[in-house]
Amino acid sequence: MEPRLQRRVQRYGWDLAAADYESLWRTQLAPAQTEVMACAGLAPGEQVVDVACGTGTNAIEVACSVRPQGNVVGVDLSARMVEIARARAQQEHCTNARFERMDAEQLDLPDDSFDAALCVLGLMYVPHPERALSEMRRVLHSNGRIVLAVWGERAQCGWAELFPIVDAEVASEVCPLFFRLGQANALAELCVAAGFKVTRQSRITTALSYHDDDEACDAAFIGGPVALAWSRLDICARRRVRARYLESITPWRQGRCVRIPAQFVVVAASLSS
Predict the structure, then answer these.
(1) Could you give the count of Cα atoms lying within 13 Å of 62 in the half-sphere of its Cβ?
(2) Residue 10's pLDDT is what?
(3) Percent helix / strand / coil, the chain, rounded to 5
């Protein structure tokens, strides 16, 4: 997919998904976010940028960790995600977090201004993740650090058939190379190529738990990375896609509930020698 088109697909797709994202994904992504925060080791007074911040869940937790003098800037390509993050921060009286719409490959932030950069499950959507890492390095202090999380191996993510099922109904791939960074040491090697020294790497095996088929489908199609494609399908195509996806996750059905296997990769790296 041409990079400009990929950015548009992601921007407007996540705009559509934003309203349902918290209810459908917050609990599911918690293991990755917990590991990222543990690896980050944030201290009061630190300055942090949260790239691909979504609705602000991780950034607001960061803000609590670095207050009172520390601050966090959350950036996301989706304007609607940023709006929700701002509203959440205001509702929770989180005054040391601000949120801006920004492309991860072109951060409108000054050089040498942050102690840490975090990115929880965002790099898979970036056309050129190496550029995003270069930008994170640029805005970090000389002894700064990053912590990144991506989805793991395709074979370890039971919902992976979602993409080819949707791709069969649209003109182009909705998330090309989505699982590339979850393969072997791909994410760690990307960090090294960007000039970082990897300090920690882990794989987290978990399960995405849903009360029933409707909730599993809502997470996949309404609140997930294929939201834009789903919004453009007619009723017949939606029925086909839904039926095929439910068939693909049949092995993980437990009565009415569904527990779909999943895996995350988390890498921490530093610029210090």
Answers:
(1) 33
(2) 85
(3) 45, 25, 30
User: What distance in Å separates the CA atoms of residue 210 and residue 215, rounded to the nearest whole number?
Assistant: 6
Strand partners, 117: 49, 146
Q: Which residue has the tokens 């453009």?
A: 232
Q: What pLDDT is attached to residue 273?
A: 57
Domains by residue range for the chain, with CATH:
3-157+172-209+259-270 (3.40.50.150)
pLDDT value of position 9: 78
Question: Which H helix or E strand runs over 213?
Answer: helix 213-217
> Distance from first CA to last CA of the chain, Å, rounded?
38
Rg of the Cα atoms in the chain: 18
Extract the residue ranges of the chain whose pLDDT is less than 50.
none
pLDDT of residue 5: 73
DSSP letter at 252 equals G
